[in-house]
Amino acid sequence: MSVIYLLITISIIIAIGFFIAFITAVKTGQYDDDYTPSVRMLFDDELMKSPKKVTQLEEIEEKEQDK
Amino acid sequence: MDTQNCFHCGLDIIKEDEIIFDAKSFCCNGCKTVYEIFSLNDMSCYYDFEKSPGATPQDIKGKYDFLDNESIVSKLLEFEENSTAIISLNIPHIHCSSCIWILENLQRLQKGISTSQVNFPEKKVRITYNPEIVTIKSIVYLLSSIGYEPYISLENYETGDNKVDRTLTYKLGVAFFCFGNVMLLSFPEYFEVKEYWLDQYRGFFRWLIFALAMPSFFYSASGYYVSAYKSIKTKMLNIDIPIALGIMVMFVRSAFDIIMDYGSGFFDSLTGLIFFMLLGKMFQIKTYSFLSFERDFKSYFPIAITKIKADSSEESVPIYEVEKGDRLLIRNQELIPVDGILISEQAEIDYSFVTGEAVAIAKKSGDKVFAGGKQIGKVIEMEVLHSVSQSYLTQLWSNDVFQKNVEQKHKTITDSISRYFTPILLLIAFSSFGYWIFIDANIAFNVFTAVLIVACPCALALTAPFTFGNVLRIMGKQKFYLKNALVIEQLAKVDTIVFDKTGTITTNKKSNISYEGDELSDENLLLIKNVLRASNHPLSRMLYDYLPLPILENKSTSNAKKMKVDYFEEIVGKGIKSQIFGYHILIGSAAFVEKIENSNLQQTSVHIKIDEVYYGKFIFNNQYRDGLEELFNVLSKQYKIKVLSGDNEGERSVLEELLPKGTELVFNQKPEQKLEFIKNLQDSGSNVMMVGDGLNDAGALAQSNVGISISENVNVFSPACDAILDATEFKKLNYFLNFSKNSITTIKMSFALSLLYNVVGLSFAVTGNLLPLVAAIIMPLSTITIVSFVTVMSSYYSKKK
């Protein structure tokens, strides 16, 4: 049954690992602004938008308007 | 699409100024240009995230010339190396997701910018750029040209590396780590099953828990020990004393239990308690970081000023390097940073920043001009009399009241309760100890510690932070920004409200203009409007905006809407002399048009004379804020109301009619007198709330128990005060006052609730039955009930009108 020593030790080590990850995250300023990243992540698609796509979209819109 | 509003900035479009571009309508050229920049660079999805997110770019010619000066730039930079530099700029306009998107894609608009990152809560953008390719000046120009003009003031000087205080986040992280693991390891103890292997490893579990509780006890909770020690030193019993006492007794008793193998101790409750209390603290602190309340005159002063050197060349110098005898160049709308003597022939100086007077004062060559004034109109030259730190504004700010620590003005509600709580708690602990000592010394020791543990006022300590945190958040959403939680308590205690007149109960923006005299024909109105267009005087601007554009039947005249002014002369302090369309027009003061007027009439007016015929005058009345009358009527039932004004008595009769009877009106008050007035009220035992608009009553705002500043633009104008109220929400003042009162009631109710828990817990403790399991149930349970109770209650009260 002494395996429990091993298991608990492993679990504590993992927990400490996460704890260290948290500390480094705070240290590098990742917790200073907790709003902007939530908005920023939604932009990625817009950035990829090529000029071509825009014109395509406009064409579709124009066609719809013509109808 | 709504054609009434500008596609870019969302403002109403005046029909004849409308510009149609790319099938979208804009209110002005500036907005159109911004749209052009964006669409050329394929960035028009700026308009997809929010509807009309932009701002009209302002004319900034010459304003940022100081950015050519390398020594100033290096003070502004966060980091600088050969090909990389980082700068943080404060941009007040940041308000929506479109702003984030455009500012984070600056590299597509300007070569040399590698990345830019927005900090939305602080309204800042951090730009990394290559100084070899692009200068900071061109970045600022770019930002301004797309409507995101940065706000650079003396405050930004030497902000090199600003350290952020993250201690509380670390403490909270440590506390949570310890709490979670200790809880997990405590589970076997809760189900005291007599199983062989659980008994076998009990010691191991306990010692592990002991070890895990250490960082929480020694690091996370350290703030409470310091605060308790300080309060004992100053002989003021605050809530941190019983908390610190409870934590320490809990730790010693638990350590004792584990070492002597008596039991499992209370480490689970201990770590949980520390975690929840820190969480409450965090909740209260996290409000709105973009408003800085601790501003001083620095944030209003320009960072650099144009100096005229001996060889009459111009140079931008940092404001601290200005010396006596220097010659300075002040442009339109620039703040005069130091006292000095006017060298240019004449100047129009707007002292509303210092005195609250809206009308600019004319100065002649040789007159003294004081720091804090704003030049309106032409560029002027002045000679410096003092260096920056000695001037008038600095003196105003160095008044004693600004040095006073606000915390000491009031005792918090929690602290006043703990004054009774702590002695009673100690009394119960000792008397139960005294009782049990005769029966069983061992039990007596247990009971003594159990009482201190269970009575540890964690619920009590959580009440205020969670209620106030929630209230601060709700009020912030409604554009009433409080400096800290203490202000809520002070708001609830207010019994006298003092209002400043100019800019507070009147708006700065539009004056109510009325006309008196012979009727003016449409042609005449048109002529006047065209003359006024050329003038820069504030009254001219107001009148120009006010005058309707007459619709003329005669088409040829209406085509000449923008008629050419043949002759134009502005005589400072008097009026305008001009010739247009064959008419001689005089617009100006009574003396200027040679009209003899009763000098007792105290009003601001502009007289009109066309072709030697006197027509009449336009009278500028103050425009009072919407809902003022109702607000005063409601307020006067509960509070004593007084109105202070720096202006003359011209408005007395209007005010007396508008305001409820018994409102005291005091006129001709200088800033120092306002301060004195508040002080006298306080000496007679009143709790005074001062509602003012800005710097000129800054002294009074600081002196009062609660100083509220009304601001048209919360980002730019927020002097040292306890709260900032957005001008559009002015009529809600009564609601905010009631809300604060109700939140105090909420706190009192939850105090009662938490004391109830304490009574239950104590009855276990005194009888010697406090098992770790009971403690582990009671403590989190009371915490959770209290937190949810106060949150629900404060949200409920916020909805009540």
TrEMBL record, chain A:
Which keywords does UniProt give here?
Membrane, Transmembrane, Transmembrane helix
Q: Which domain of life is it from?
A: Bacteria
User: What Pfam families does this protein map onto?
Assistant: FixS
InterPro entries for this protein: Cyt_oxidase_maturation_cbb3
- For whether the record's keyword set contains Transport, the answer is no
| Bilayer-crossing regions | 6-26
Its protein name is Cbb3-type cytochrome oxidase maturation protein
**What organism is this sequence from?**
Flavobacterium weaverense
UniProtKB/TrEMBL annotation, chain B:
- What's an example Gene Ontology biological process for this entry? copper ion homeostasis
Tell me which stretches of the chain form a coiled coil: none
Q: Which residues form the signal peptide?
A: none
Q: Where primarily located? A: membrane
Record Pfam families: ATPase-cat_bd, E1-E2_ATPase, HMA, Hydrolase
Q: What are the record keywords, sorted?
A: Cell membrane, Ion transport, Magnesium, Membrane, Metal-binding, Phosphoprotein, Translocase, Transmembrane, Transmembrane helix, Transport
Query: Taking every annotated instance into account, which residue ranges of this chain make up the domain HMA?
Result: 85-151
Tell me, what is one Gene Ontology molecular-function annotation carried by this entry? Answer: ATP binding
Top-rank taxon, per record: Bacteria
Regarding the membrane, this protein is recorded as:
Multi-pass membrane protein
Location in the cell: Cell membrane
Q: So where does this one cross the membrane? A: 168-187, 207-227, 239-256, 420-439, 445-472, 749-767, 773-797
A GO cellular component term found in this entry reads: plasma membrane
Q: Which PROSITE patterns does the record match to this protein?
A: ATPASE_E1_E2 (PS00154), HMA_2 (PS50846)
- Report the family membership: Belongs to the cation transport ATPase (P-type) (TC 3.A.3) family. Type IB subfamily.
Q: What is this protein called?
A: Cu+-exporting ATPase
**Organism expressing this protein natively:** Flavobacterium weaverense
